[in-house]
Design a protein that fits this description.
Blueprint (H helix, E strand, L loop, with lengths): L4 H10 L7 E6 L5 H5 L6 E5 L4 H14 L4 E5 L5 H13 L3 H4 L2 E5 L1 H8 L4 H6 L12 H21 L3 E13 L5 E6 L4 H7 L5 E8 L2 E2 L2 E2 L2 E5 L3 E6 L6 E5 L14 E3 L2 H11 L3
Parallel strand pairs: 1-5, 1-7, 2-3, 2-4, 4-5, 6-11
Antiparallel strand pairs: 5-6, 7-10, 8-9, 10-13, 11-12
């Protein structure tokens, strides 16, 4: 079998640069993640779990202050865990979604992994041993198997030019004098789950409430951070492991990223589009 490499190269040259955000937004609980999701200025679908009810009010307030774009709130809780999981995947993969919304906020990874996925019969069956007993060492693998359709849906939405934001709680380990986050640990079930899921997101940012000096004046607000590390470690197994993952914007040179910018996702999307390598 032979390949037409000349055509492959030509198709690559014609391929369109896609600046659509597929953002993992990490920050402390109650730290403004949901609020930021309402700053796109477009019609936005907000999908949330059982512990993120407060996020619905936050994202609506953000859109109200923005003055443009509607917010549609939908909980994925309501039936059995199996029904809720299947309904969520069905919503994210519905071909009609891009016709109605310019952005989707998935709030968030904690509820998805610790609660929704871990409560399904698919998860339970995947973790069974040959003797029918629960194997806790299979839990991470089971979560990744069930996260696969969700991640695939997020990639498809990006291809359809629908911005997505998936929130993740960050366990804050150190903060700076202005309130900026210096170090944080992703709150996910296992090291393996964190190491497998986080790098799949094209774009990553950390949100904090800080009071940096801007033109000599301190201005307290929610800011996106790009120059810090998300760190997770494990001592399980024969060799200790450490995961260090930096925020990023796909296609944008890391040196062009500011240390901080106001948590305005409409502005972030424009910044990415204007600074992507062509």
């Amino acid at each position: 079998m032979s390949f037409d490499f000349a055509k492959m190269k030509k198709d690559q040259e014609k391929s369109e640069v896609n600046p659509t955000l597929m953002l993992l937004l990490a920050g402390p609980a109650g730290g403004g993640k949901s609020f930021a999701g309402g700053t796109f200025g477009v019609d936005t679908l907000f999908l949330h779990g059982e512990t993120e009810n407060h996020g619905a009010d936050s994202i609506k307030l953000a859109a109200l202050k923005k003055g443009k774009g509607s917010i549609t709130v939908q909980s994925w809780v309501g039936g059995t865990p199996d029904e809720n999981y299947k309904n969520l995947v069905a919503i994210l993969t519905d071909p009609e979604l891009p016709k109605h919304f310019g952005a989707v906020v998935l709030d968030g990874l904690k509820d998805l992994t610790f609660d929704l996925i871990s409560g399904t019969t698919m998860f339970t069956k995947h973790c069974l041993t040959n003797k029918g007993e629960h194997n806790q060492w299979k839990e991470g693998e089971a979560i990744l198997v069930l996260m696969k359709p969700i991640m695939k849906a997020l990639f498809s939405l990006r291809k359809a030019k629908v911005h997505t934001v998936t929130t993740m709680i960050l366990d804050i380990q150190d903060v700076g004098a202005s309130g900026e986050i210096l170090a944080g640990k992703p709150l996910l079930p296992t090291f393996g789950v964190a190491a497998a899921i986080i790098p799949q997101f094209d774009d990553r940012a950390v949100i904090s409430f800080a009071t940096p000096k801007i033109k000599g004046e301190e201005k307290g607000d929610h800011y996106l951070q790009f120059k810090m590390d998300m760190k997770r470690s494990t001592t399980a197994g024969a060799t200790p492991k450490i995961m260090m993952i930096k925020p990023k914007l796909s296609g944008v040179d890391f040196d062009k990223l500011p240390e901080m910018m106001l948590a305005n996702l409409e502005f972030l999307a424009k910044f990415k589009k204007d600074n992507m390598l062509k």
